[in-house]
Amino acid sequence: MDDDMDQTLGAVGPRLRALRKEREATLADLSEQTGISVSTLSRLESGARKPTLELLLPLAKAHGVTLDDLVDAPPTGDPRIHMRPVTRHGMIHLPLTRRPGGIQAYKLIIPGGNKSEPTPQVHEGYEWMYVLNGNLRVVLGDHDFVMKPGEAAEFDTRTPHWFGNADERSVEFLSLFGSQGERAHLRAKPKAERG
């Protein structure tokens, strides 16, 4: 067991170096991002220093990977992803992304018969939503409208906003949310020119 752990910890240094090089970051850049000294980062990458949880957590966040990915943890045996729904403000949130930072994806469900009065909120970020089923009432600034299945909207979340059931039926929609204002960019392949 100790040999396995030593082998796993020994492989962290090269993985850290590869992740940093992939991001084209210097040790100084990474030091500024994580608060870990350049000399400690260098010793971690070379294997001269054993990684600790206190060092690995900020590094995983800086590289945008999970701690399991950083240490190459073995699979748990069950390949299924078990989404854990969270209920907030009468809505069921099912997280669809599992990586830290960046744009997060959710499936949101507002149960039927849950019609409530709008209470617009504001916060940092940018959101893109797509209605799957039901009718979603959206209050966005001075606008109050209903989105139907297949419709999408995007907005800066610093604009007062609220969404809920437009009628007594449940509503399901997808949400892409960037807490620092990241925007989802869609790329379309241009049509082939006809000759």
TrEMBL record:
It comes from the Bacteria. Keywords: DNA-binding. It holds the Pfam family HTH_3. SMART domains: HTH_XRE. Residues 16-70 form the HTH cro/C1-type domain. Coiled coil: none annotated. InterPro entries: Cro/C1-type_HTH (IPR001387), Cupin_2 (IPR013096), Lambda_DNA-bd_dom_sf (IPR010982), RmlC-like_jellyroll (IPR014710), RmlC_Cupin_sf (IPR011051), TransReg_Diox_bact_type (IPR050807). This is XRE family transcriptional regulator. It comes from Glycomyces tritici.
